[in-house]
Fold:
Amino acid sequence: MIDAHVIWDLEDDPDGNVQHILQHGLDMDEVEDVLLNRDNETVPSRSSDNSVVFGYTSTGRFIAVVIELIDDNPKTMYPVTAYDVPEPKGR
Structure:
């Protein structure tokens, strides 16, 4: 696990990040599983200025989490959305 802070909107905010991930059948714990695992790959998004973190949740799902990096020290991330993606080949 990495020492980081994840910023969440209010759960009942219809335009917030919690609702965005719930729409994809994920919850905050699953997203944090991926964001706080130092072994997960982070790559630049192809469609925005954000980054995407790929990894497995504790429930075994392989997901992508689109994040906005707010600060490097301490590492502070705002998950924009998250969704299931195909597992990498060879896994």
